[in-house]
Specification:
The radius of gyration is 16 Å and the shape is globular. The protein is about 70% helix and about 0% strand. It is built from twelve helices and no strands. The protein has one domain: Heme oxygenase-like (Heme Oxygenase, Chain A). The protein is mostly helical and about 190 residues long.
């Protein structure tokens, strides 16, 4: 029996519900920008990887802000090396990192991380589109990173620690919105 939408929604923490609600419009903009059919083309996949490069700058900023204290398994969550590897496989030298500043509080750190961790869920759809493509096989270390690790589930557990802290939830939503804007500002 498939879980209903109401059952899925009720399994989300208060912080997760707020993040989903307050970033929905930005998530839709990202989805429209990264059309699966376009990503599957010879030129579209490298463009997708380049547009994903802000993840690298966000990761470095999260580390400077203290993400290890919030997500102790952070080192296995990092994907910038995998992304750089895929870019090089496509013949593209990874661009310079942008210096970002992230507030050193639990809410902000979880909000920025929400966007990075949530992108793993979309990776499976992109991989399916790539597998259906008639284009030659591509390096997809970035998209495969963390498979089988249950990183989303453990992230949601960390996120639930702010469920009873409305100011922290608000800071998380602001952080997630800023992270989405970083991705939207990237050139493709």
């Amino acid at each position: 029996m498939m879980p209903s939408a109401a059952m899925k929604a009720s399994s989300r923490s208060a912080a997760h519900e707020q993040l989903r609600s307050r970033t929905h419009h930005l998530h839709q903009r990202i989805d429209r920008r990264f059309d699966l059919a376009a990503i599957s083309t010879e030129m579209g996949y490298p463009a997708f990887l380049l547009a994903s490069w802000p993840f690298a700058s966000i990761e470095v900023a999260l580390e400077r802000a203290g993400i290890h204290a919030i997500l102790p398994d952070w080192d296995k969550r990092r994907r910038r090396e995998a992304l750089a590897c895929d870019l090089r496989h496509c013949g593209i030298e990874p661009p310079c990192l942008n210096r970002l500043e992230i507030a050193q509080n639990r809410g902000a750190l979880l909000g920025w991380s929400y966007v990075l961790e949530g992108s793993r869920l979309g990776a499976s759809m992109i991989l399916q589109a790539l597998n259906k493509s008639t284009e030659p096989a591509r390096a997809a270390h970035f998209l495969h990173h963390g498979e089988g690790e249950h990183l989303w589930r453990s992230f949601k557990t960390a996120l639930s620690t702010i469920d009873r802290d409305p100011p922290a939830i608000s800071r998380a939503c602001e952080g997630a919105q800023l992270a989405f804007h970083c991705l939207l500002a990237a050139r493709t």
